[in-house]
Write a structure and sequence with these properties.
This protein is mainly beta and about 450 residues long. Helices cover about 5% and strands about 40% of the residues. The chain is built from three helices and 38 strands. The strands form ten sheets. It has a four-stranded antiparallel beta sheet with strand order 1-28-27-26, with no helix packed on it. It has a four-stranded antiparallel beta sheet with strand order 2-3-4-5, with no helix packed on it. Strands 6-7-8-9 form a four-stranded antiparallel beta sheet. A hairpin with a 5-residue loop joins strand 22 and strand 23 (about 255). It is elongated, with a radius of gyration of 28 Å.
């Protein structure tokens, strides 16, 4: 178990999903890759619709007529200088925010099928694809195709079909998923195989370094993890084919597959599918933006966005369309308390009008929990950590163990309590609403 990763990183299947597709301005439902720029704009690579930039409200398309090398875009990379690189089926190009620049004098990089790009810690831009392997350093491109074929025993006349992963480990070595796990270190290339504990090594096309000592690699329906000594197989739920392995901002490892996406938080795996809210089962890429939202590029459903911090409390599925929220409080333990009132006539009791959310579970408070409510209009936590509720007919106090109703013997006359506040001396103030006269 990776204790460092687990802390604060677990995801649950609660939250809100949204799909963006062609009616929203996305140019193609088949999407390949996602990147976020320094201004927070999201960029989506599509199979036949060029590149789409999303500002949170609308999409803007960039296509071949705008200077893009091709409308078939496989990869997007924003380097440390802020330049936008686009890998297409007709080579690579870059964008400075105003215009596109082609690399016509860089050999196979100018016209080859670019499938994956990666910038290492030395600012080298690595590219790979069918029959393509090399890196840009400054203004020079260094092709490693001939060296790869010689040192790894590959027939140069046969183009290897895919590379969906390039990464750099803690020692500076660069790894590739080139239908086999390949390492570049000290100017030499080496292919890892069955003698290293990998079964069917020629199927490996994805690879990622998690920054915590583990190298993940896989292909087809197999996944492997280097634990510092040997490669160990890792089972994944379902029969999905691996498409990419990526990390989010908090260190979780994501596995994009043809049957949804899996997330490893350091303790366990979570599997997200169309049943959770994904627009399509086939997921090609993911990205966690600076606001904590998770974006997924799907193959046929457009873009899915998942916000794990939002919850949908009442809606049509819960059959409570007559409720409206009117009170909200976060207590000192981090629980969110929500008060509701009914829009029905005053005779309707509004019994289930209090809810709490502890980050994992949502609890509706009412008679089943021994609480007699009549529309929760106000919530307040006092300096002792006790919870006060104001309703249409009652004032309730919760000490963390049980609820108690404040009665006339304590000076409460049973008015509608619509607001509760506390001053510096600890005195409690109650706001009363006269519903008949509409006066406070």
């Amino acid at each position: 178990m990776d204790a460092q990763m687990v802390s604060g990183c677990r995801l649950h299947h609660q939250g809100v999903w949204r799909t963006y597709s062609t009616p929203d301005g996305l140019t193609d439902l088949q999407t390949e890759h996602i990147a976020e720029d320094q201004e927070g704009y999201l960029w989506f690579a599509t199979w036949d619709g060029g590149v789409c930039r999303f500002d949170g409200d609308e999409f803007r398309a960039f296509k071949q007529q705008d200077g893009l090398r091709s409308n078939h875009v496989n990869a997007i990379l924003i380097d440390r200088k802020g330049r936008f690189w686009f890998g297409t089926d007709r080579g690579i190009c870059w964008y400075d925010g105003e215009r596109f620049y082609a690399l016509d004098d860089r050999g196979d990089l100018a016209s080859g099928y670019v499938e994956f790009m990666f910038e290492d810690r030395e600012a080298r831009l690595w590219v790979a694809g069918p029959g393509l392997l090399g890196y840009c350093e400054g203004d020079e491109y260094h092709s490693l195709v001939a060296q790869y074929c010689e040192q790894c025993g590959v027939d140069q006349e046969k183009r290897w079909p895919h590379c969906w992963g390039i990464t750099q480990d803690g020692e500076g070595a660069v790894w590739f998923g080139l239908h086999g796990l390949v390492r570049y270190q000290g100017g030499e290339l080496r292919r890892w195989g069955e003698e290293d504990g990998l079964r069917d090594p020629h199927s490996l096309v994805v690879v990622a370094w998690d920054g915590k000592g583990s190298l993940w690699t896989g292909g087809g329906r197999q996944l492997w993890r280097w634990d510092g000594r040997v490669y160990r197989p890792v089972p994944l739920e379902g029969n999905g084919v691996l498409r990419k392995i990526q990390l989010d901002r908090e260190g979780r490892v994501w596995f994009c597959t043809s049957e949804g996406v899996h997330c490893y938080d350091g303790a366990e795996f979570h599997h997200f599918t169309t049943k959770d809210g994904l627009a399509h089962e086939v997921v090609n890429a993911m990205l966690q933006d600076r606001e904590g939202h998770f974006w997924f590029a799907t193959w046929g459903g457009g873009i899915s966005c998942y916000d794990p911090h939002l919850i949908r409390l009442f809606g049509e599925r819960e059959a409570r369309p007559h409720h409206e929220a009117c009170a909200l409080l976060e207590d000192r333990r981090g629980r969110i308390w929500m008060g509701f009132r009914t829009r029905l006539p005053l005779a309707y009791p509004g019994e289930d009008s209090l809810a709490s959310y502890d980050g994992q579970n949502l609890t509706i408070w009412g008679r089943k929990q021994g609480l007699e409510l009549d529309n929760c209009l106000a919530i307040h936590e006092d300096r002792q950590g006790r919870l006060w509720l104001g309703t249409r007919t009652k004032l309730l106090l919760y000490d963390g163990q049980e609820w108690r109703q404040i009665g006339t013997e304590e000076g409460f006359a049973g008015e509608v309590v619509s607001a509760i506040a506390e001053d510096a001396a600890g005195r409690l103030y109650l706001g009363h609403l006269d519903p008949e006269r509409s006066q406070v």
